[in-house]
Amino acid sequence: MTVDEFVSALKNAGIQLTENQIQQFEQYFDMLVTTNAHVNLTAITEKKDVYLKHFYDSLTVAHYEKALQQTTGTLIDVGTGAGFPSLPLKIAFPNLQITMVDALQKRVKFLQDVVTTLGLTGVTIVHGRAEDIGQDPKYREQFDYATARAVARTSVLAEYTLPFVKIGGEFLVMKGSAAEQELADGQKALATLGGQLRESFEFTLPNGDTRYVQIVDKNKKTPKKYPRQAGTPSKKPIG
Ligand code: SAM
Predict the structure, then answer these.
(1) Cα-to-centroid distance, 65 and ligand 1 (Å)
(2) What ipTM was predicted for this assembly?
(3) Which ligand 1 atom sits nearest the alpha carbon of residue 230?
């Protein structure tokens, strides 16, 4: 997807980028490939692929949870890596307040550099594991939205994300073709952690790849014992 195709696909979806925002995406792309030469950030480095599989794909969650486009609310992105999906969301919807979490210090340093270079405000970057940060009262049940992409299967991801979400907030699940199976396997985890599926959307990216966005409502408090200690959710998923 070229930059022009990216801009017009978003326009067709009702998302109009300004010249400044288009330039911020260009700066982000430049920093991603430059830094990736010495820090492992992503396997995707071709410009057309970065625009489709990182930038456009990250924004698809806002096609299905349209409130993200207008909100001044808070979103936490768990296992954000090089900033996906939260940095494209922040660039496209500057009123959104984002918190990015990652366990790898080198990726956190890259994110800090991007945020400074692009002049973004309303961004918090936290280095650590979701299991530890989810027990910190500063972050626990503080967010309107939690999301994550390519971090873990849904049963595990629920334990990484739902502890951060306020009652009345949402866990936004972004998945590929295994989404329905992962959701079925994750039902027990979602219910245990206070979540309930509201809606599942299936769609295709412009290259034909299947994607899902699933909206999970947080309607009960997460029991204190979750998240369990670092490493346990992936070794012994709930259910
Ligand atoms: N979300 C990004 C994306 O879609 O490109 C990065 C995906 S990358 C495959 C997974 C990232 O999750 C890595 O950067 C890793 O350090 C982070 N991660 C995995 N488990 C984590 C945990 N329990 N807490 C915090 N970060 C975690």
Answers:
(1) 22
(2) 0.99
(3) 23
